[in-house]
Structures are given as C-alpha cells and as structure tokens.
Specification:
Distance between the termini: 44 Å
Shape: globular
Largest sheet: 6 strands, mixed
Structural class: alpha/beta
Number of strands: 9
Radius of gyration: 18 Å
Order of helices and strands: EHEHEHEHEEEHEHE
Number of helices: 6
Helix content: 25-40%
Strand order of the largest sheet: 6-5-4-7-8-9
Length: 199
C-alpha cells in the first residue's frame, strides 16, 4: 500500500541561503532545485526549523505545504533571565534578521539594535555600524539563524565591545555549523570582547 501523504522533516533546510543569485555573481538557485526534487518524489508536507529566509515557501506552495518553525521560542527560554532588563538589548547580525530580532525583543521586553554589514567578493563580512539605541546598555543578546565561519557574529561582538562599550555578549544560533578551524575566533572573543555564552 502507498502512503496517502508524505511528510519530510528537515531540522536544517539545505540550500536555504541559495534562494536567489548573489548580486554581481553567477550563482545557481539550489533552493529551488531542492524543492523541485521533493515535489517529483511526491512529498506533500515539508516541515523545517528556522530557515535562512521565509521566501522559500514560494518554491513549495501550493503543491506542497511548507511549515517553518521559528527559533524564537527556544531563544526566549534560553534568555529568560534577561527579560525586561534595562541594561540588556537584542541584536541581530544583519538586516535580514531584523524582523526576527524585533519580535524576539518585544517578547523579551527589550530594546533592539541591527548591525549593518557589507560582504566582499570573497564572502568576508565587514561591519559598517550598529543602528539602534545602545546608550546605557551593558549586555547584548545576539541571535542568528546559522553560521559556518562565525564571521558576522564575531564582528558584531567585537564592534559592540570596542565601539559601544558592551561588557557582555550572549549568542544564540539556530544552526551552528562551525568547524574546528573557526573556533579560535570565538575563544579570542571570549577573552578579549566579553563573549560570555554561545548557545
């Protein structure tokens, strides 16, 4: 007998960063190809956790139901002790995560800030600045959906510490795919820039 419905559970959505070509670069939209493969396989429902962009649902709907769980509930539980504190702010590592950070900050009764970054042709992130009210803040809660090298997070932590005088930074990442070659940056940030926790 054949199953009436097929549900695919993806704790991590592959190719979720490849949903559109990068500016001035030839790049395949592998997120679309992946969705097409699931469609051909007869999948009815796709359930995933905190994808890089919610624009992915356009590759699935209406032929497949696309359900993406947000990491916001987990982050709220992780950072419960900081709720409502006036010396704490929520920070996102780029404008793409701004909407998530705003919702997270409101749920936590905190103010928020958004970092502005530029990524060069080699993919290296350079932080341009922080937009938001950082005055009187001592602790930053930095959230991100995923990281491989940690560059954006570490630039954020360093800038908050060196330029804005933030004493402590606590980081939460939905999908931390950092390998051993990039762990030294986090160790250095814990010694030099006030990185206290990495979830």
């Amino acid at each position: 007998h054949r199953a009436k419905t097929i549900t695919v559970v993806l704790p991590y959505m592959p190719y979720s960063r490849q949903d559109k070509p990068t500016f001035l670069k030839r790049e395949a939209t592998l997120a679309s190809l992946f969705a097409d493969q699931l469609r051909v396989a007869g999948v009815d429902i796709v359930l995933t956790y905190h994808p890089h962009t919610m624009a992915l649902d356009g590759f699935y709907e209406p032929s497949m139901k696309f359900v993406a769980l947000s990491g916001i509930d987990l982050f709220i539980r992780l950072f419960e002790p900081f709720k409502g504190r006036k010396d704490v702010m929520a920070v996102c590592t780029d404008a793409g995560g701004a909407k998530f950070t705003v919702h997270f900050a409101k749920a936590m009764d905190l103010t928020y800030a958004i970092t502005s970054k530029f990524r060069d042709s080699h993919g290296k992130a350079d932080l341009l600045g922080v937009v938001g009210d950082v005055e009187g803040k001592r602790i930053a809660l930095v959230t991100d959906d995923e990281t491989v090298t940690g560059t954006s997070i570490l630039k954020t932590v360093e800038t908050l510490h060196d330029r804005y005088g933030i004493d402590e930074t606590h980081v939460a990442i939905s999908h931390a795919k950092v390998d051993g070659d990039h762990l030294d940056g986090f160790r250095r940030a814990s010694v030099e820039c006030g990185l206290k926790a990495l979830h």
